[in-house]
Amino acid sequence: MSKIDIKTRDGSCPSHIYRPAGTGPWPAVIVYMDALAIRPAMLELGERLATHGYFVLLPDLFYRVGPYEPMDPKVIFSNPEKRKVMMEKLFPSASSSNVMSDTRAFLDFLAAQPDVKQGGIGTTGYCMGGRLSLIAAGTYPDSIAAAASYHGGNIANDAPDSPHLLAPKMKARVYVAGAIEDQSFPDDMKARLEKALTDAGVDHKIETYPARHGWVFPDFPVYDAAASERHWQSMLALFDSTLKR
Questions:
Q1: What is the pTM of this model?
Q2: What are phi and psi of 6, to 5 degrees?
Q3: Hey, where are the domains in the chain?
Q4: Is the peptide bond prior to 25 cis by the omega test (within 30 degrees of 0)?
Q5: How do residues 180-223 score in pLDDT, each as one tens digit?
Q6: Which residues contact 37 (CB under 8 A, 6 or more apart)?
Q7: What CATH number was assigned to the domain covering residues 2-243?
């Protein structure tokens, strides 16, 4: 793993880079973090994904606010003041328009790396990152060949930047996994997303896991080991069949 700063429109975005063992070039994947930002569990995901043969870029999407305290899910969910900082300061800084501007810089960075395989890249994201992963697929359709979203929220709502509205522009293969009893991705939203992707002819699959919102990461109170492994299997199946061809 190495750390770099990627120059963006609004400053420098600290990012982690993971390369597989051996020599490339390798297909690239951008990982969009969840709202609890870069922390050991997120770093472990980047490292594990690289072991499967992917050049992984994990950017800190909250860089616009400057230095901030590392976030522990167990503390955030029990401390109203810390949760307020996340919701009112950090989270708004990673708006879809901001992150899509950043993504242009991420794509340019990847295109300039000699050990990155040229052609389509993959994206995956969690919670807010799941939403961003889908928006990226619709914003940069000529660059993104595969996009995954895990317990992504508000991905087919009435907001003008809802990901489902970008379905007609998507060329990527799309995989979406939601959770049961998830207020941020209820059944009617799932149906709306399904219709949008189907009507647009997007190659996609949407599933609902018998788990709770946030199940992927072991530092979350709702972590579900079986569902987390299912997430790995589905993500690798998507990327292997699309990016390694």
A1: 0.95
A2: -105, 125
A3: 2-243
A4: yes
A5: 988 889 999 999 999 999 999 999 999 999 999 999 999 988 99
A6: 60, 61, 62, 68, 70, 71, 90
A7: 3.40.50.1820
